[in-house]
């Protein structure tokens, strides 16, 4: 370990696997980081930023830890947001998945986290890698619709419910009223410039958690039309992207069920390709 106690502005706890920091503008949400131990506070090196969006289990720190070695090798800072349960009321598990809940815009909260990191460390630019699995996959593809210019690459892992890139379907089944919902216009040209991965296990076929019953909070016409299981729904999402001429790397990981840790090798491979191509 090259750091000795602390830097001039950074403390000992601003390197390596950091504690969780409350967001300045909204302390109900927080994030942790991984910063390579050999990052020099007064050096010139600029690092990539990788955002890892947790699933319903809120395993932010474990995602961070499992990607730390990759981050050191590929000169990245890892940002792992934590959007706690119950932000939208008792028994709330899903707040961030549809981007907005209880007056909170989770896409904008993430961008504020990125801004805080950018003020503390030297990043290459305002773009970042984004991966999310399951609940994080919900967030990742919807964030992509809203902020493609902020993404160096996006990895969408096994969301249970998808928003198709279909301008004839209303939010959240499609994007027909995206501007009315969020004040942001869909920009397909910018989306086409972002490398996209979709990843799911070949045995991820259970339906108990993702079939939306009529009368539930998520129910709307067409809620289950994208497919019965996560493989079918992610395939429908891929098809909607490709119909709009957005290239997708689709990774079906053999023998894996609904396990976010087990697909990380595919995510590492994708991110390596993105970072390598960006260096050319």
Mean pLDDT: 96
Radius of gyration: 18 Å
- The helix/strand series, from N terminus to C terminus, equals EEEEHHEEEHEHEHHEHEH
- Sheet of most strands: 9 strands, mixed
What percentage of residues falls in helices of 4 or more residues?
A: 25-40%
Cα shape: globular
Treating each run of at least 4 consecutive H or I residues as one helix, how many helices?
A: 8
Beta fraction of the residues?
Answer: 15-25%
N-end to C-end Cα span: 31 Å
Number of strand elements: 11
Low-confidence stretches: none
Word description of this protein:
This protein has 280 residues and is of the alpha/beta class. It is 29% helix and 20% strand. It is built from eight helices and eleven strands. It has helices spanning 60-66, 68-74, 106-120, 135-146, 178-182, 188-192, 230-243, 264-278, and strands at 16-17, 21-23, 26-35, 48-53, 76-82, 100-101, 104-105, 128-133, 151-157, 196-201, 249-253. The strands form two sheets. Strands 1, 2, 3, 4, 5, 8, 9, 10 and 11 form a nine-stranded mixed β-sheet that branches. Strands 6-7 form a two-stranded antiparallel sheet. It is globular and about 55 Å long. The chain starts with 15 loop residues before the first strand and ends with a helix. The mean pLDDT is 96.
């Amino acid at each position: 370990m090259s750091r000795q106690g602390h830097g001039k502005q950074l403390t000992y706890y601003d390197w390596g696997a950091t504690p969780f920091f409350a967001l300045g503008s909204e302390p109900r949400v927080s994030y942790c980081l991984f910063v390579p131990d050999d990052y020099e506070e007064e050096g010139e090196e600029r690092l990539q930023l990788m955002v890892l969006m947790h699933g319903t289990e809120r395993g932010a720190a474990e995602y961070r830890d499992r990607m730390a070695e990759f981050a050191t090798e590929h000169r990245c800072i890892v940002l792992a947001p934590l959007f706690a349960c119950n932000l939208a009321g008792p028994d709330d598990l899903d707040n961030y998945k549809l981007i907005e809940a209880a007056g909170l815009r989770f896409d904008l909260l993430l961008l504020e986290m990125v801004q805080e990191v950018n003020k503390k460390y030297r990043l290459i630019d305002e773009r970042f890698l984004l991966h999310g699995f399951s609940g994080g996959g919900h967030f990742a593809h919807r964030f992509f619709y809203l902020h493609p210019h902020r993404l160096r690459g996006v990895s969408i892992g096994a969301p249970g419910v998808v928003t198709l890139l279909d301008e004839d379907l209303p939010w959240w089944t499609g994007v027909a009223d995206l501007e009315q919902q969020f004040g942001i216009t869909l920009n397909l040209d910018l989306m086409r410039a972002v490398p996209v991965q979709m990843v799911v296990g070949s045995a991820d076929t259970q339906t108990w958690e993702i079939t939306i019953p009529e009368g539930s909070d998520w129910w709307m016409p067409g809620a289950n039309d994208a497919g019965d299981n996560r493989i079918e729904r992610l395939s429908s999402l891929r098809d909607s992207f490709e119909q709009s001429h957005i290239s997708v790397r689709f990774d079906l990981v053999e023998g894996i069920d609904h396990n976010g840790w087990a697909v990380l090798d595919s995510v590492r491979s994708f991110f390596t390709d993105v970072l390598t191509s960006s260096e050319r």
